[in-house]
Amino acid sequence: MSLTMGVVPSGTELSRATLVALLSRLLGEDPDLHTRVPAGEYAELFWDGERISTQWFVYPGETGVGQLEVEVWDSFPSRPASAYRDEAARIVEVLRELAEASGGRLIVEEGDVTGASLDEVLDLISPTENGKPSAAVETGTPAGSDEDYLLRYLAAGDDRLTWLRDHAAATGSPLRLDYSRDSLVPLWNWAIGRLQPRPADAPKEKVFLANGSAFLRPEGAVFPMWYGRSLLLAPHVWSDESLALIDAVSFYAAECLRRAVPDLTWQVAHGQHRGYLHEGQPILAGRGHDVEPITSLMPLAGKVYHARNPDPAHPPTPPTAEDLRNWFDTTVAQHRSG
C-alpha cells in the first residue's frame, strides 16, 4: 500500500528551522535537508525503515517552507500490520509536531486530520492483519450533481442564520447579524465560548470515500449537510452543537465577504489540476483564490480546540474575539487586490 501525507501552512509559512530540526530525527545530516532550495524547485529526500520506504518533498516559500509532502510505501504488505504501524508512528509524530509548532494543517490523502491524536491518524493509515483497511462504512459523493448540492447548500442559508440568531438569544447573547464587518467580533466572541470538543473516547467509525480514502465519523452524531462530502469536511473532534455552529458561522462569514467583494459569487469548485482539495464543493470565486467557507473557518476553530486541549510542549496561541474579523479583513484585501 502507498499513501500521501504532509503539512501545509494555515496562514503563515511553515518554519524552516523547525522542519529541519524535526526531519533530522529521521534523515540525520542529509545535505539535501540542510541546503536551501531555490524558488520554483523542491528538495527530494528519502528515508527507509525496516518495513516502510518514504520519499519527502520540501517546497520552499518566500522565507520559510511552503509545503511538506511525503509518499509512504509498505515494502512488505504481507507481514504483520503491527510493524507497519510502529514505523508509521515515527513519520506521523514528526508531521504532527511540525503542524502544531508551525500552525499548519496535517493532511492525509487530501483529508485534514489536524488535531487528531496519533492513534486516530494511525487507525486511518494502517492495514489490519489481513492487509486490508479495518472494517468501515463505504460511501461516496451524495446523490445528485455538485450543482444540485450547491443549490441545496445555499437554500439552507436562511435556516442556518435563523438557528444562529435563536441559539445566541437563548444563551443570553443576542447577535446583530447585518453582514457588517463590525458584527464579526461579537459573533466570534460568543462562538469561542460555545465551541466544545467531542469527548476523545466517543465511538467513531472509519468511512471510505469512493476513491479509497478514509475519514473518521462519530457514531450516532448529528451532522451538517457537508460533513463527509470530502476528507477536508470531516472535523470529527467537535461536538454536534459545535458542528452546527461552524456550519452557521462559516456561511455567515462567507456572505459578509460576498457583500464586501461583489466580484465574488457562489460557484462549484473545479480545479485545474488533479487532486484539487475543494473539487465539487461550494466556494466563493471570481477574483483571487477560491474561498471554501468551512475550511476557511477551521484554523480559527483550531485555535479554540488547542486552547481547550493545550500541549505543554507547544503552548497554543489563544483565540481572540478579533480572529474572525481579522480573517475577513485579510481575505477582503487579498481579493480586492487580486
Task: Give me the secondary-structure topology.
Layout: E1 2-8, H1 16-27, H2 31-34, E2 43-48, E3 52-60, E4 65-74, H3 81-102, E5 105-108, E6 111-112, H4 118-125, E7 137-138, H5 146-155, H6 157-170, H7 184-194, E8 204-208, E9 214-218, H8 240-260, E10 265-268, E11 282-285, H9 293-308, H10 323-337
Parallel strand pairs: 7-8
Antiparallel strand pairs: 1-4, 1-5, 2-3, 3-4, 5-6, 8-9, 10-11
Describe the fold and architecture.
This protein is of the alpha+beta class and 338 residues long. 39% of the residues lie in helices and 17% in strands. It has ten helices and eleven strands. The strands form three sheets. The protein has a six-stranded antiparallel beta sheet, covered by helices on one side. A hairpin with a 2-residue loop joins strand 5 and strand 6 (111-112). It starts with a strand and ends with a helix. Residues 129-142 have low confidence and may be disordered.
